[in-house]
Every structure is written in C-alpha cells, then in structure tokens.
Amino acid sequence: MAPIGVDDTLPDGQLGWFDADDKLQQVSIHGLAAGKKVVIFGVPGAFTPTCSNQHVPGFVNQAEQLKAKGVDEILLVSVNDPFVMKAWAKTYPENKHVKFLADGLGTYTKELGLELDLSEKGLGIRSRRFALLADNLKVTVANIEEGGQFTISGAEEILKAL
C-alpha cells in the first residue's frame, strides 16, 4: 500500500489511550480529528533515543505555538501497547497537549501505509517516523521520513507549514 499523502483522507482507526482519569480508552481517530485541524506524528518506538530526545520534545515544547496557529489536537502514534505509552507520557511532566496513542498491533500504522520493518534490530514491525497535518480529516501536509532519519517530521516543519 502506498503511504498516505497530501489530499488523502485519514483512515479511521481505534487506538489505546489513558485519559485524564487514568482509564484506558479506545479512541477513534475520526472522533478526535473530524471537523478539526490536527497533527498526527508517528515514531518507531517509545523510549528510543531520537524519539525521546528530539521528536516528542519538539511537539511538547511547541504545542502552544501549534495551538496558537489553529491546531486543535496533537496526536502521537506509536506501535507500542497503551501501558508503555502511558509510562512514556509520564516522562514529559510539562506536556499539556500531546496525546500518546498506542497502536499495539500496528493496525493503524498499516492503514496509513507507514510500516517499517525493524525485525533485524529485534523490534518487529514499527512505524516510519512521520508528521501529518490534517484539516477535517483531509491531509494537507505529509512529512514522511526515510529509514531512521529525522529531518522533516519535527514540530518546526509543521509550524512552517501553518
């Protein structure tokens, strides 16, 4: 399947998320994104160096600027279970806006056409690093990295596009 691109419609999918009351919920991407401007960014794995030290902090630290430019939701998707995503979210106590969503089986990542096979590193099928900007489910920016790069999918690039 070809990767999602500009002018494509976001597919719907159910992802795991711990809400403010610490209850595990299954949330719908369409439920979070319909009628809104959203950023969805994906990373290969929780607690991995580039993801934890660069990619996620960029969105956490620039969330207010993104909101000021009209972004309603900032959604992080990773092929990890919800408990791992909850633990990872807790490592960013300053985070007020980024929702850490678990794609435990990689089903949503596959719907996006953004799977990355990291079996040779013992990680199995994960997600390519990416950042999407969508307005009412229509993708307006699709910054998808090749391999392990981190050059076009950061918060700065999304801010430039707004």
From TrEMBL:
Keyword match Oxidoreductase: yes
UniProtKB keywords: Antioxidant, Oxidoreductase, Peroxidase, Redox-active center
Active site: C51
MF annotations from Gene Ontology: thioredoxin peroxidase activity
GO cellular component: cytoplasm
Domain Thioredoxin: 4-162
CDD domains in the record: PRX5_like
Pfam families in the cross-refs: Redoxin (PF08534)
GO BP term, example: hydrogen peroxide catabolic process
Function: Thiol-specific peroxidase that catalyzes the reduction of hydrogen peroxide and organic hydroperoxides to water and alcohols, respectively. Plays a role in cell protection against oxidative stress by detoxifying peroxides.
PANTHER family in the record: PEROXIREDOXIN, PEROXIREDOXIN-2A-RELATED
Name of the protein: Glutaredoxin-dependent peroxiredoxin
